[in-house]
Structures are given as structure tokens and as C-alpha cells.
Design goal:
Length: about 400
């Protein structure tokens, strides 16, 4: 004998039971209202007929007239009762129709609430917080099956992202050793006392330049991997004005060489402070300033500004230049995306600068906004959560 198995509680079954019970109750209500209206009509029919009955029949003709009168009264009473019953049924139908719609909406909302919660939780989860799970509670039905499947998918995605970041970080770290060996070999070869042919010296300089470029590329990979790996350590309160001043000071020689007119970082509000990792935030602003210097025309200008408001500290760096296509500008936040080569004076660059800026800003709960200026050039705006000015600085 086969063992009896308890039927599975499915969403379809729950909908069937709920809506079936609802419409059953609606039908019962409709019948009750109809019967109440009918009882009212019966009471009316049982009352004395209106009008003055004829005198007691004395002849057959008089009896026939009375029968005819009674039949007419009975027909009128039945017609009035039928109309009353029809009107009552129509009213009951309208009332119960409205009640059924309201009840159906309420019940459907309660039944579909888990799906809405799953949708809202899924929207909150992105590449930066794949560790979160839906963890849906409730009976083992299709809704919980869906939530568990999404959780498993998120787990696989998290493992894949972690593996990718570890690979990038490990590969970048391991490649630094052969690069250092190659650079040391070049230095040893050039340091020999024998005269070195000019062609060899040019080739060595070219190789050293390329090795430096590869080294910067690997450093960018390491920064991206570190930024995208999760929570940031060593958080401290930093001034955007001080970071921008330091970046400009460190690049004073490049600014002079290119004859760039730079608005001082004093235009940045003293209250523009944020909290985060000093190394990463320094790298972020360094990349923005480097981008402003490198992707600028000879004798151009750079303008810095910073404000604080609505819990956000913002740093804005603008540069002049030719008119740019906004579609191409939007793509600069993706790794290895560059504008046309004639925009740079050197033709070099890893294509990771602004993508690193976007990743660091996102890791700190901020955003990066790139806009092509209508007059020409680029506007880079970094928005970060504002932090209170330290007490010793305010004093």
C-alpha cells in the first residue's frame, strides 16, 4: 500500500482557496440581501389590497367582477414584488461586486507581499554587496523556491567575482617581480664602463618607458582589485581641499611645462570633508588631477571647486579643450576606454584612470559624474558622503 503524502502547499492552491472562499462569501451575501428584499415584498403582498372593494356580490355578474378585480390586484402585487426583487438584486450585485474587488485587492496584496519583498531586496543587491541574501521565510512553496534559487545564484556570482578579483590581484603582484628584474637588467647594462652605442641607449630608454607603463597598469589593476574587494579598512576623516592641494603641488612641474593656468584649490570649501581610506582617496584625486593635466591642450586651464550640502561633499574639476561627445565621455568610467588619441599630448595612458576614480568613489558610497562641457573640455564631479570637520581643525 502506498503511503499517503500530504499535498504540497503551492501558491496556486492558496490563491484557489482564498479567492474561492471570497467569492463564496460574496454569493452568500448576495443571496441574503436578495432574500431580505423578497421578504419585504411578501409582507407588502400580505397586507390588505388598496382601494375600495365592491359591494357583496348578489348576482353572478357581480361575483365575476370581484374575481376579475382580485386577479388584477394579485397581478399588480406580483409585478411590484418582481420589480422590487429585481432592483434589490441589482443593488446587491453592485454592492457585492465592489466588496469583492476590495477584498480581492487586499487578499492579493497579502499573498503577493513576499514577491514584492524579494523584488525590493534583489534591487538593493549589486556587485558591491553580493554577500547579502534574501533569506525568505515562509512555507515551502514556489515563492520560497524562487527566493532560494536567487540566493544560490547570488552565491555563485559572489564566488565568481571573488575569484576574478583574486586572480587580478595575484597576477598583478606576481608580474611585478619579472618587471623589476627586467628594469634592473637594463640599468646594469647601461651602467657598464664601455661606451654604449647611441641606438642601444635609445632602445634601453624606450624599454624603460614601456616597463614603467606596464608597472602603472599593474598598479591600477591592484587598486581596482583592492577597491572592489569589499569593506575598506583604515578609515579616517580627510579634507578634499588638502588632498587637492597636495595633488597640485606634486604636479607643479608638469603644470608649468604645459603652461596650464590652474585655479587654486582655495576655491574648495573648507567644510568639504569626507571619511575613507587615505591611500585610496589620495589615489582618486591624483588620478583626476593627472587626467586634467594629461588630457589638456598646451596653455590650457584647470578649474577646481568644492562644496558641501545635503550630507554630500563634492569636488569638481573642469578643463578646457575641444568639444567632446557625451556618449564617449560616459564610456570613460569603463576600464581601457579612451577618447581619440589626438586629445592627449603624449598618447600614453593605461585607460584605467577614471575607472579607478569611479570604483574608489563607489567603494566610499559616492558617485562620479562626467559631463562634456558645451564650450569644450570636460567636467569631472566626485560626490562623497560628507563628514564633520574635526574639532581640532575647526578650532
Amino acid at each position: 500500500m502506498r503511503k499517503w503524502r500530504r499535498p504540497v502547499r503551492t501558491v496556486r492552491l492558496r490563491f484557489t482557496v482564498l479567492y474561492g472562499a471570497m467569492f463564496l462569501l460574496s454569493g452568500i451575501g448576495l443571496l441574503v440581501i436578495t432574500n431580505l428584499v423578497g421578504l419585504g415584498g411578501t409582507r407588502t403582498s400580505q397586507s390588505a389590497p388598496s382601494g375600495t372593494p365592491p359591494v357583496e356580490p348578489a348576482t353572478l355578474a357581480a361575483a365575476t367582477d370581484r374575481i376579475t378585480w382580485l386577479q388584477t390586484q394579485l397581478s399588480d402585487t406580483h409585478a411590484a414584488q418582481s420589480r422590487q426583487l429585481l432592483i434589490g438584486s441589482a443593488v446587491a450585485l453592485v454592492v457585492m461586486g465592489v466588496v469583492s474587488v476590495v477584498l480581492g485587492r487586499v487578499i492579493a496584496g497579502r499573498v503577493l507581499r513576499p514577491l514584492r519583498m524579494i523584488t525590493a531586496a534583489t534591487r538593493r543587491i549589486s556587485a558591491d554587496n553580493l554577500h547579502e541574501r534574501l533569506a525568505a521565510q515562509g512555507p515551502a512553496d514556489e515563492v520560497k523556491d524562487l527566493a532560494d534559487t536567487i540566493d544560490e545564484l547570488l552565491e555563485r556570482l559572489e564566488s565568481s567575482f571573488d575569484a576574478q578579483r583574486r586572480f587580478v590581484a595575484n597576477a598583478s603582484h606576481e608580474l611585478r617581480t619579472p618587471l623589476a628584474t627586467m628594469r634592473a637588467s637594463l640599468d646594469v647594462a647601461l651602467a657598464k664602463p664601455e661606451p654604449i652605442p647611441a641606438q642601444t641607449a635609445v632602445l634601453a630608454d624606450r624599454l624603460r618607458t614601456e616597463l614603467d607603463q606596464v608597472d602603472r597598469l599593474l598598479e591600477g589593476f591592484l587598486t581596482l582589485a583592492r577597491t572592489q574587494h569589499g569593506a575598506l579598512a583604515d578609515r579616517t576623516t580627510l579634507s578634499l581641499r588638502q588632498l587637492a592641494n597636495a595633488a597640485l603641488h606634486a604636479r607643479a612641474a608638469d603644470i608649468t611645462t604645459r603652461r596650464l593656468a590652474v585655479d587654486p584649490a582655495g576655491a574648495i570649501d573648507d567644510s568639504a570633508w569626507t571619511q575613507g581610506n587615505r591611500t585610496l582617496l589620495t589615489r582618486m584625486i591624483d588620478n583626476v588631477i593627472d587626467n586634467a593635466i594629461t588630457h589638456n591642450h598646451q596653455g590650457g586651464w584647470i578649474r577646481l571647486a568644492g562644496t558641501t550640502g545635503a550630507g554630500t561633499a563634492q569636488l569638481v574639476v573642469e578643463t578646457g579643450g575641444r568639444v567632446l561627445d557625451q556618449e564617449q565621455v560616459d564610456s570613460l568610467v569603463r576600464p581601457f576606454q579612451r577618447l581619440s588619441a589626438d586629445r592627449t599630448h603624449s598618447g600614453t595612458g593605461s585607460g584605467l584612470g577614471l575607472s579607478i576614480v569611479a570604483a574608489i568613489a563607489a567603494a566610499h558610497g559616492g558617485t562620479l559624474d562626467l559631463q562634456a562641457r558645451p564650450e569644450g573640455g570636460l567636467r569631472v564631479a566626485i560626490s562623497l558622503p560628507a563628514a564633520a570637520v574635526p574639532a581640532e581643525t575647526a578650532a
